[in-house]
Amino acid sequence: MTPDEFRKHAHDLVEWMAGYMENVETFPVKSLVKPGEIFDKIPDNPPQKAESFDSLMSDFDKIILPGITHWQNPNFFAYFPANTSPASVLAEMVIATLGAQCMIWETSPAAAELEEKMMIWLRELISLPSGFEGVIQDSASTATLAAILTAREKSTNFSGNTEGLGKSGILKVYCSEQTHSSAEKGVKISGIGRKNLVKIPVRSDFSMDPEKLKEAILNDKEKGEIPCCVIVTLGTTGTTAIDPLRAIGEICRDNNAWLHVDAAMAGTALILPEFQWMLDGKEYIDSFVFNPHKWMFTNFDCTAYFVKDASLLIKTFEILPEYLKTRTRGKVNDYRDWGVPLGRRFRALKLWSVIRTYGVEGLREKVRNHIGIAAELSEMISKEADFEILAPVVICVVCFRYFPAGYTENQINDLNEKLNHQLNDSGKLYLSHTVLNGRYTLRMVTAQTNVTIGHVQNAWRLIKETARSLIS
């Protein structure tokens, strides 16, 4: 492709991108294709001769686009937000054009130093203690793995990396029953072992019970086992429950256990002064993660990971082959030593673009609006006799179910599962579910970048009509 051809296609593509952003609401929110439908439309063999970019885009529109679930549609209420914004998309275009490999300072000094500064900006925005240092990871799962590995090495005096875990004793990791599955994946990958992950019961609000945690740790210590790491969740995946940080932090302090905080989605709410209560006890935190690529309008991937003592993180991951030795080592941050991958993208540019384009006031206004919409939705649901709220509404997630009179619990579960599928198959909105105390629970997340109360009101009308039609 010549520079002139690139210029033409790039301009055409920007028009397509702008049109998509303007018209994303016109697409079915959830893809309606059947399994294998896209696969069967793609040729079995690659083309022998070059094809035009116009041909590629034509096939994209006909074959690929029908198989896309449109996360940027404001009627997307499922799972969690995976927000983007024009500022982030434009920065991503620059990142792709530069094609920089940002593994160490030498390979792009601006990338390393912008990342260092952006992590300071984020640290101040969410009010973590000033001693924390940060790095951008690809996902909260990777960040949690980094925390577990660092906790493992601290607990074994770094013998795990050198000698393996055979002589280290039994290490235990603790989390609540509602903690994200990345904790379980992390203990498997780390070599600590799945059976050594202790899932602590939750209280009525679905937050970890600190008394049960304390009891579990003391029981394990009596058996000669080592409390290695406790994972606190600020905003669980199912209900956005907030674990009691201070009470758990004190238990970690008393038992020399690493305290990792997973605030993947809810962490963005910490930019609001009125949500700083979630960080009560922050002085006990060893590591902390939240995802700007969820609720802070920065497209995937961009995870902010902070540690109280960066030297422990670096000692866990650093390795120095000859080809990576530089004259600047020790004077700068070589972020390939701060996590699993060697290769790193220039993610900091997206954060810089988003924060500068919105400003702190604009970010806070967006987040407050999403939280307010969830509160309004909760009120709407509470007014209906045949619906009920099943978990406290803390930030931007509302958990509820259809609850008509005269039906057994099993029948109600079946009704709600049928309701969920029927709504999603309509293409008009997209919900996901969880199970709380044996109850099939619908989850509605009001945090897509451009969602309005109007979108939620329309969705709620459709939910009520569809639910009641199931028993009419």
Please give a handful of descriptors for the protein shown.
single chain; 472 residues; alpha/beta; Aspartate Aminotransferase, domain 1; Aspartate Aminotransferase, domain 2; 3 domains; 7-stranded mixed sheet; 4-stranded antiparallel sheet; 15 helices; 43% helix
User: Any low-confidence stretches, pLDDT <50, length ≥5?
Assistant: none
Structural class: alpha/beta
Give the radius of gyration. Answer: 24 Å
Strand content: 5-15%
- Write the CATH homologous superfamily of the largest domain: Type I PLP-dependent aspartate aminotransferase-like (Major domain)
Got a strand count?
11
Q: In the CATH scheme, what's the topology name of the largest domain?
A: Aspartate Aminotransferase, domain 2
Short overview:
The protein is of the alpha/beta class and 472 residues long.
Draw up the topology in text.
Blueprint: H1 3-23, H2 37-41, H3 53-64, H4 86-98, H5 109-126, E1 133-137, H6 140-155, H7 159-163, E2 171-176, H8 182-190, E3 197-200, H9 210-222, E4 226-233, H10 245-255, E5 258-262, E6 287-290, H11 292-295, E7 303-307, H12 310-317, H13 348-382, E8 387-389, E9 397-402, H14 409-425, E10 432-436, E11 439-445, H15 453-469
Helix pairs in contact: 4-13, 5-13, 6-8, 6-12, 9-10, 13-15, 14-15
